[in-house]
Amino acid sequence: MNKSDFSIFAQHPQLVYLDSAATSQKPKVVLEAIQKYYTEMNANIHRSAHFLAESATIAYEATRKTVANFIKAKHKHEIIFTRNATEAINLVARSWGETFLKAGDEILLSKLEHHSNLVPWLQLKEKIGIKIKYLDIDEVGQLIFDGSQITEKTKFVSLTGMSNSLGAITNLKPIIKRAHEVGAKVMIDACQLAVHSPIDIQELDADFLAFSAHKLYGPTGVGVLYGKAELLEKMPPFLGGGEMIQQVFEDHFVAGDIPNKFEAGTPNIAGVVAFKAALDYVNQIGFETIQKQETSLSEYALEKLKTLPYLTLIGPQEVENRGSITSFTMDKVHPHDIAEGLSQKQICIRAGHHCTQPLMDYWKLPATARASFAFYNEKEDVDRLVEGLEEVYQYFS
Ligand SMILES: Cc1ncc(COP(=O)(O)O)c(C=O)c1O
User: Fold this and answer.
1) Ligand 1 contact, 114 CB (< 6 A)
2) Residue 158 and residue 299 in one domain
3) Which domain holds residue 334?
4) How far does the centroid of ligand 1 lie from the alpha carbon of residue 192, in Å?
5) Nearest residue CA, atom 7 of ligand 1?
6) E-only strand ranges, the chain
7) Could you read off the pLDDT of 252-271 as tens digits, one per residue?
8) Which residues are catalytic?
9) Which of 16, 88, 140, 270 counts the highest number of beta carbons within 10 A?
10) Of all atoms in ligand 1, which is nearest to the CA of residue 88?
11) Nearest Cα residue to atom 13 of ligand 1
C-alpha cells in the first residue's frame, strides 16, 4: 500500500524498511517539492523585495500555516521552525528554563524519555541547579501517574507522547491537567506521536510541543516547536543573529516578534517548503487510514513475533495504547548481530539503546532490536522480518 509513492522502494525492490521511527522514507511529492523550490524560486526569505524572494517567503510561510493547521494551533505565529525536535526542546530549556526556573525548582520527566528530552534538562540542572524527578513505568512501559507525582514544587513537566523505544503511548491529558492545577508548564515531545496520531494542541492544552519533519515524511533539517503565544512572547531569544531582531545598535538590540524572534539566521528554506508537501500528503491519506494500516501491522507483527520462542518482547504486549514500534531481544544473540544479519537480507531495523539509556538501564538491558512500521509497510514485510529472524537465530545458536 502506497509503496509506489516512495522512490526508494523502486530503487531497492527487496527493501524491507522497518526503521521509520528513526527517520521515515520520503514520498516523491517531497522530493519534487525540493527540486521545484530550487529550480523555480530559490532566494533568501523575508529580506529581499525581489520576486523570487517573495515567492520563497510565501512558500515558507505557507508551511507554517499548514503546520499550525496540522496540530490545530490557534495562531500561525505559534509555530517556530528549528533544525529538529532536539533543537526545539533545547530552545525551551534554555529560553524558558533559564528565565523562569531557579535553583531547587522541580521539573518532571519520565523514564521513557529520549536523550533529546533529558540532556537539555540535565544541562539546566548543571547550570542552575534545578531538581529532576521521573515518572515511573509499569512492566510493559506505560507511565504510572496518579496525580501525586506533581506537587506545588513542580514547575515544568516534559514528556514524550509516545516512546520511541517501546511504542507505548502516554496518557497525557490527566498529567497536563494536574500540572496546570499547580501552575506548571508542560512540554510534549511529539516526535513519534505526531507521526501516528492526529494532534489537537488546543484540546490537549500543552504549552509547548516539539517534533521533527524527517520522521513525518518530510526532509531532514527541519523541526517544529509549538508554543502558546503568551509564553513565547515572554521568552528571550535562544540564538542571536539576522532575522530575529527589530533593531540593532552598537550597545544593545531589540528582538523581533514571534516567530522570527526564534528563527535566527537563514533557515532550511527548501526543507521547510518541502515539509508542506509531506503534510499535504499525510492529510490526503488521512490519519484514519494511517492508523488502520499501522494497527493492523502491529497486531500482525505482535502475533507473529510471539510465536518465536527465543524472542522476548519489550514494552506493550497488545495493540492497545501503542504505536507501531516493536522492541525485542533474542536469546543468546546481541541486537547488533540481529540487525546486521537482517541487513544482509535488505531488512532494516534498529539495534541499540535508541537514545534512551536510562530506560535501558531501568530494564537492565544493554540494547534492544526495534522494528518500527509506517503505513507504507505491508504484511509481507512482517513475514520477511520473521523469516529473517529465524535465519539469524539458526546462524547464531
Ligand atoms: C521521542 C523522540 N524524541 C526526540 C527525538 C529526537 O529527534 P531529532 O533527532 O529529529 O531531533 C527522537 C528521535 O528519534 C524521538 O524518537
Assistant:
1) yes
2) no
3) 3-18+286-396
4) 8
5) 85
6) 16-17, 79-82, 106-110, 131-135, 154-160, 185-189, 208-212, 223-227, 245-248, 253-255, 311-314, 325-330, 347-348, 350-352, 368-372
7) 999 999 999 999 999 999 99
8) 355
9) 88
10) 11
11) 22
Report CA(137)–ligand 1 centroid distance (Å).
20
- 269 in a structural domain: yes
In angstroms, the CA 355 to CA 256 distance is 35
pTM over 0.85, yes/no: yes
Q: Is residue 50 part of a domain?
A: yes
19 in helix, strand or coil?
strand
- We report the CATH number of the domain holding residue 353 as 3.90.1150.10
C-alpha 85 to ligand 1 mean position (Å)? 6
CATH number of 251's domain: 3.40.640.10
Nearest CA owner, ligand 1 atom 16: 164
Q: Which of 258, 283, 308 is the last residue of a domain?
A: 283
Q: Do 269 and 324 share a structural domain?
A: no
In a domain, 196, yes or no: yes
